[in-house]
Amino acid sequence: MANSPLHSPINPHFFQPLLPGFTNHLDIPVAFFLKHLERNNKRKTAKLRSDASETTWRVEIDGQRLSDG
């Protein structure tokens, strides 16, 4: 059941490598955006966290991009 495509995690997450050019914005993967954010367009901020440390960042959601964080 945990691998069911209808299962939605409590804390939705995605992995995005930090490639050159990410300093201005980070693109949200299309599948993640469509499943978790497109219908919930009231949300204007998100909190990013690192698995490698306790660091978190508050960022702005600008369409399909994260910025200002």
From TrEMBL:
* InterPro entries hit by this protein: DNA-bd_pseudobarrel_sf (IPR015300), REM_fam (IPR039218)
Give UniProt keywords alphabetically.
DNA-binding, Nucleus, Transcription, Transcription regulation
Reply yes or no: does the keyword Metal-binding apply: no
Alphabetical list of SUPFAM superfamilies matching this protein: DNA-binding pseudobarrel domain
Record's subcellular location: Nucleus
According to its record, what are the GO cellular component terms?
Answer: nucleus
Q: Mostly located where?
A: nucleus
Gene Ontology terms, MF aspect: DNA binding
The identity of this protein, by name, is (rape) hypothetical protein
Lineage start: Eukaryota, Viridiplantae, Streptophyta, Embryophyta, Tracheophyta
